[in-house]
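Need MBL fold metallo-hydrolase's 3D structure for a figure. Predict it.
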Amino acid sequence: MREHIHQVADGVHLVHGSNTNWVILTDGDAVTLVDTGYPGDREKLLASLSTLGHSPEAVTAVLITHAHNDHLGSAEYLRGTYGTPVYADEAEVPHARRDFLHQVTIGQVLSNAWRPGVVPWAVHALRSGGTTHIPVASPQPFPTAGPLDLPGRPVPVPTPGHTAGHSAFHLPEAGIVISGDALVSGHPTSRVKGPQLLPLMFDRDRQGTVAALDVFEALSGDVLLPGHGPVHRGSVREAARRARERAS
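Structure prediction for MBL fold metallo-hydrolase:
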């Protein structure tokens, strides 16, 4: 498992699951978990914690960038089993409860099946629980504005577009931005490498996703931890600009 875990700073690790990343923030024995992968990634998720010397009980909170199944996968498991609070942007809370579901449809996938990588990605998503009903019973909005009183002191940054309540997280002292799916560095359905937006079919509001790049351009940082793709080292501002150029 260790080869899938990348330490990017003291107390900050990016973990590659099966096509989706999550981030482990640590402060001593306490952990903040940002996203949780697919439902089928649970063993990898727990193994990544164990490899870093932590038990699931050490997770003080789960932060969700957005409530698609490949990021929400084990949030309810941790909440229900260990009492771990699950936080998201206020606009994303009903999505996490599954009051509604905004994610790519089977029809959209079929209409894009001719594109390279789409069919293998879709098969993997189905096998990993991409269409499983996995609501979080009681997700909560972020408890405060500004830095959260959690390991890593992450600062939620609203970046709606991919979903209505998508949130990135800024670690200003470390110069790190956790970008979720609002700005990625790769995806199985993309042949582009480096900073980019996800293919159009994945976004709820493409104009909003493009507009959210303005937010990233305003953040200080030189390390990007995306929801998909490898760690990107270099100016976050420049990464957002490059993604904008590619989107146009």
